[in-house]
Design brief:
Blueprint lengths: L9 H14 L3 H31 L7 H11 L1
Helix pairs in contact: 1-2
Protein name: Antitoxin
InterPro entries: DUF6290
Length: about 80
């Protein structure tokens, strides 16, 4: 397993340890979980913005959910 060193102040470390204890998880798991959660959210937002921009540039049209359902029913 790879490891990454993160340097924080004494106050930050104390606060992170408190939060880990609050959530009843290790300090390592706390940093990993919340780092990945925020990075995944940021990635999703980034991809969404790119997709929306492409949607507008390509003058795409939306369809209703019932139209989507009907399209699948036709093919079945």
């Amino acid at each position: 397993m790879a490891s990454i060193k993160v340097q924080v102040s004494s106050n930050e470390k104390e606060w992170l340890e408190y939060m880990a204890k609050l959530y009843n998880i290790s300090l390592s798991d706390l940093v990993l979980k919340y780092s990945f959660d925020q990075l995944e959210d940021a990635y999703d937002l980034h991809v969404g913005k790119i997709s929306h921009k492409k949607y507008l540039e390509d003058d795409m049209q939306t369809v209703s959910m019932s139209e989507v359902k009907n399209e699948f029913v036709k093919k079945a």
